[in-house]
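dumping this here so i dont lose it
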């Protein structure tokens, strides 16, 4: 039964592969026996991570692209197919918040930066949809069976102050995750699945300064997060690995359109 969790002989592309959470996901795929395409905008980081995997006997390829650029993604797809001959899975880990998508408490709520909100929303929504259009098609044509994992967020379920653009984008990803899973099933039966992981609060390059102080303590916002998390701590990126491997593997072959919350209980607490 444990063999069903293996990713041996599976080729998985990870967008956002040069980020902190993306790195943990890459490590999980390789540890489970998979081959990984590390896709991101930081060429040096992607290459360093791919080389480190190869040096340890694993299989990996560095892919440089912006997830909003179809032409760049098409080039990356051809690079993966040239190297490994097929694609079995996709992890849509690219996304995140942007300064222009933030509404501060002192800002006029009726004069928000609409274009900034749109830009942040687009990155999270279309930065998930566009790679799926490119690599999802390759899964169908080169493998015939595979799994796509989207990255949602606690922000899609609760009103998290300040980050309106990010909230809207991730809520849209949730809708897309369910809708597309149904449409995939209508066309390909149980062969192509789509699910999502909804991380709670993990420290990343984008939010570290917002949640922690230079001396290792918590900011006011960080303390509020801890208060609303039953486990009373932030998540460790490695704690996303189990859910990811399960959703990419044959162990979850009857699961589609679902969302797995990896959040220390943040999504279920009532606040009292």
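and the seq i came up w/
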């Amino acid at each position: 039964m444990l063999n069903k969790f293996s990713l041996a002989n599976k080729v998985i592309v990870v967008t956002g592969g040069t980020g902190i959470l993306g790195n943990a996901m890459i490590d999980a795929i390789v540890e489970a026996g998979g081959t990984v395409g590390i896709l991101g905008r930081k060429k040096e980081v992607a290459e360093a991570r791919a080389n480190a995997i190869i040096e340890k006997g694993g299989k990996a390829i560095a892919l440089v692209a912006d997830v909003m650029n179809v032409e760049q993604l098409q080039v990356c797809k051809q690079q993966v197919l040239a190297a490994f001959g097929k694609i079995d899975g996709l992890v849509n880990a690219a996304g995140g918040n942007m300064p222009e998508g933030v509404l501060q408490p002192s800002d006029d709520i009726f004069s928000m930066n609409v274009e900034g909100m749109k830009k942040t929303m687009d990155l999270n929504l279309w930065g998930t949809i566009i790679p799926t259009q490119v690599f999802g098609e390759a899964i169908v044509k080169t493998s015939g069976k595979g799994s796509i994992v989207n990255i949602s967020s606690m922000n899609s379920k609760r009103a998290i102050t300040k980050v309106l653009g990010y909230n809207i984008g991730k809520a849209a990803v949730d809708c897309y995750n369910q809708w597309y899973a149904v449409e995939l099933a209508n066309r390909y039966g149980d062969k192509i699945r789509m699910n999502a992981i909804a991380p709670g609060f993990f420290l990343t390059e984008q939010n570290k300064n917002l949640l922690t102080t230079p001396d290792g303590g918590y900011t006011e916002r960080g303390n509020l997060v801890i208060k609303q998390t039953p486990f009373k701590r932030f998540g460790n990126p490695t704690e996303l690995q189990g859910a990811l491997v399960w959703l990419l593997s044959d162990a979850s072959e009857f699961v589609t359109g679902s969302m797995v919350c990896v959040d220390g209980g943040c999504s279920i607490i009532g606040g009292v």
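The longest strand covers residues 192-199.
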